[in-house]
Amino acid sequence: MADTATTASAAAAASAANASSDAPPFQLGKPRFQQTSFYGRFRHFLDIIDPRTLFVTERRLREAVQLLEDYKHGTLRPGVTNEQLWSAQKIKQAILHPDTNEKIFMPFRMSGYIPFGTPIVVGLLLPNQTLASTVFWQWLNQSHNACVNYANRNATKPSPVSKFIQGYLGAVISAVSIAVGLNVLVQKANKFTPATRLLIQRFVPFPAVASANICNVVLMRYGELEEGIDVLDSDGNLVGSSKIAARHALLETALTRVVLPMPILVLPPIVMSMLEKTSLLQARPRLLLPVQSLVCLAAFGLALPLAISLFPQMSEIETSQLEPEIAQATSSRTVVYNKGL
Q1: Using an 8 Å Cβ cutoff, are 163 and 220 in contact?
Q2: pTM (2 decimals)?
Q3: Which residues cross the membrane (predicted)?
């Protein structure tokens, strides 16, 4: 009761200073934007992947954490705005793990996914790949993905390292096998002209990465299919553990992981095949790599928030579609579950 009272008093104190602010009323631990619409989720994830948080100083981080602590305990100083509180929460969530409260290594933060991942995408799409370079870039891409997944994992329950290694090895093996296999097939296809063969080779990374992403999701989260995941009623009460909800969660996550690399690995080859024909790049071939890097960065920056905004983080499902024992355990017509990222 005391915590509720202090939080309420903090909110009341802050509201007076926010009468003229355009920012919505601050809610500790809640998203700033509505998650029921695609646009709201899109704006929410734009905040999460904002690379500007990579440059936040240690002092600014401490100030943000302290501001949120003051709000929580009702000791917020007068004049603090909703915008300042939302900004502080954005900084804390971008840098500190929500379960361990430890700093996430910069390249593995969600805000670092695009800046540190773009050079890998450029490498994946380099023309005239050798067998060694194909293996290297696919390995590096899956290694980066695995580290990002592990660094941002749910750490409330201990997860064996063997499960992480299993998912990592499965993703690397599937990505490398598919990429190398497709490259070999293209090389042996005599009916293609050299120009057509080069163009097709540029699209090889997409099926390799998409298949590896699905493999990674299934292997890393296979335990959810066996044990089920928690489903909650409209009041947030635990109803039970559902294997059917787990299948829905994995399907939605796998679909997101297929959609994500599509614009990143499909659009740049199309754009570059057109740009390479321009007189500017034909006269200045040294500009090819910088231009391709900019194209990949733009595609990555657009694809990531669009893909992860497809489904709500907390997805809804009708209880009639779930196991009979769960449907009988609640009077709610629908329940929600954490889909995961």
Answers
A1: yes
A2: 0.75
A3: 167-186, 198-219, 258-275, 287-311
